[in-house]
Amino acid sequence: MKYYFLTIFFCTISLFAQKKKEKVEIDSTTYYIEIANFHKKNNNFGSSMDYIQKAIKAAEKNQDYLAQANAFSFLGNVYFELKKVNDAILIFNKSIPLYAKQKPTANQAYTLYNLGLCYSEKKEYSTAENYFNEAEKIYELINVPEGKELINLQKGILHQIKGDDDKALTIFSTLISKPDDEDQSKIKSKAYYYIGQIEAKRNRNNLAINYYNKALELSSKYKDLQLSADISVSLSNIFEEMIDIKQSHKYLKQHLALRDSIKVLNSKRVGTEDFLSFKEAERLKAVEQMNRENKEQQRANKFSKLISILSIALISILSLLSLSLYKNNIIRSQSNKLLQDKNQELIQAKEKAEKASKARAEFLSTVSHELRTPLNAINGITHLLLEENPKKSQMQYLTSLKFSGDYLLTFINDILEINRVESENIEIEKINVNIKQLLSDLHNSFKDLASKNNNDFVLEMDENIPENLIGDPTKLSQIFINLINNALKFTQNGKVYVKASVTETKDEECTIHFDIADTGIGISPEKQSTIFESFSQGSVEINRKYGGTGLGLAIVKRLVELLGGQIKLTSSEGIGSTFSFDVNFIVGEQQFVEVKKHYDESVFENKKILIVEDNKINQMITKKMVENKSIQCEIIDNGEDAIEMIRNHHFDLVLMDVHLPGINGTEATQKIREFNKTLPIIALTAISLNENREMLLSYGMNDVVTKPFNPDNFYRSIAQLLS
């Protein structure tokens, strides 16, 4: 009997629905929005608004609320770009309740974000911040990290407007540390610009110029004319303040040219008459919509009585079903509870795995960092003893000690490097690199190792390789050194080849293919799949015979991937191995000529240096190395006393340890720069996972020397700054 009533009920509903049904067109909203977007990108805003109006009509006809919301959001963006902020707010507010009926989407969050931009334009910053926070919640809910970066940029701007430069700088610094891609670079260009404003406000003009130039490079790349114009006028002002009239005039001309380009683009956009015509069409459409809704309401009233009768029948039927549903709900609740418990267990297991991975990285970084202090003592004392003309019988011991120290330093550096590349705390440089010169220098430096194992070391380079390429020479050197060292180490009485050839030249880009091949012991097929993993080697026997950390190829694989390539291995046991990869370079405008940096030891005479170091052994070693060059020195073991000593006495240079008791070396340097901006300061540090050269230089230091010291690099750095 129960199913008989159900059948009658649903047949009745179907009958009335059939009478009410109208012909529905295929949803063309997306199509119209795409055409509107095409016209908008071509600055044809009149046609763009015509098509978005068609999109709104199609969405309303099909009762597609999500499509309506998307169409209104697009129209709001058009108004905002036309500087019609109040109209944009009105349209955005039409899309918000429509989005509320749907699941959270990126478009909904972007609409809230744009509302925040509108209120920022009106200088209603509190309201703007509320909308940014709402957008951020949705981006977090749907896991869209790119959207959060947009929000963070605006939050940083709001902090800067409110005068809280420190909070703003923290946000902007986080944004510019992100990896490069198209969307992120657009955000980074603005972050660089606002950091430049903060640094200019603090009268740190050189830093401001640096950040402005980075912002200008990115904004020019992605054709953000307005931002490029703002940066150009800021650079003009700052050079004018520095009394560099030539540079100021250059950037002022650039600003005027960009401003004219913006005017030309704006002239192509919709005019005042077109905009008013479109607004009138919207008003008439609203009146038509109201009339249509009134007619719909009248029709709806006719069905209200019938719906009331059917509702009573439906309530009766639902009452009959409620008992069975109650039992089903109990079973479903028990099943859901079991699933929730299992999900919680999986989440906890995932968190434990992540914590273990982080702890491993931090442990290895800490160990490698802390080992540098005693290793600095070993290498430093060994260097000093070798310089003091030791007995012939002692030379063998000192040479062996130096070799062991260098080997241990290489091992520690490999551990630190693999942690750095795995943590992605690494940036790619884009500077001049001469591939031919780089490979030739490496070929010469490895000749001794090649002859030691009686190997024929051959370098083959394509004559078509340009000499003026833009790339990262440091990371390329790391890759080649690891691969060539392995090839020479695992080959005896054989041949090692290094080949470089151009595979493709397109516009201003050049792709070079590299092969490092040997006729050595080769790698077994079962080991080839794991050879690029950390601490992996061919076998225990190979490790005992040849030594090594098992980190070199893991570092190579990650560095090649960071450069945009993929390393490949071809190998057979007893025949040899070939490692190959491709790297894309940008062809520079001018040929790069490498300049070797030498120094004259006469610059050390009659110079006075302050050593700021808390470790007694490091004090002794550093002092001895400095005095060996006829330099006077004084030692201070903390940052506070160092500041006062420099304030009251003359020094030609400061060797500043980064990690000091009390205030650290970077804080001490910042305070020194408040009253002495010219004194050369060299940072002494065992660079850890979270440190880098650029970060230390940003505090006002002139150079960075890594512990344990390489004596040649140590003296060269001092000599260059004293010169």
Summarize the topology.
Elements: H1 2-20, H2 29-41, H3 45-61, H4 65-81, H5 85-100, H6 106-121, H7 125-141, H8 145-161, H9 165-176, H10 182-201, H11 205-221, H12 225-241, H13 245-268, H14 272-387, H15 392-422, E1 431-433, H16 435-445, H17 447-452, E2 456-461, E3 469-471, H18 473-489, E4 495-506, E5 509-518, H19 525-528, H20 540-546, H21 552-562, E6 568-572, E7 576-587, E8 608-612, H22 616-627, E9 632-636, H23 639-648, E10 653-657, H24 665-673, E11 681-685, H25 693-697, E12 703-706, H26 711-722
Parallel strand pairs: 2-4, 8-9, 8-10, 10-11, 11-12
Antiparallel strand pairs: 1-3, 3-7, 4-5, 5-7, 6-7
Helix pairs in contact: 1-14, 2-3, 2-4, 3-4, 3-14, 4-5, 4-6, 5-6, 6-7, 6-8, 7-8, 8-9, 8-10, 9-10, 10-11, 10-12, 11-12, 12-13, 14-15, 14-22, 15-21, 16-18, 18-21, 23-24
Shape: globular
C-alpha termini separation: 104 Å
| Biggest sheet features | 7 strands, mixed
Instruction: Enumerate the spans where pLDDT stays under 50 for 5 or more consecutive residues.
Output: 1-26, 592-597
Q: Can you count the beta strands?
A: 12
Helix-and-strand structural type: alpha/beta
Helix content: 55-70%
Q: What is the overall pLDDT average?
A: 79
Q: How many helices does DSSP assign? A: 26
What's the Cα radius of gyration? Answer: 35 Å
Work out the strand percent: 5-15%
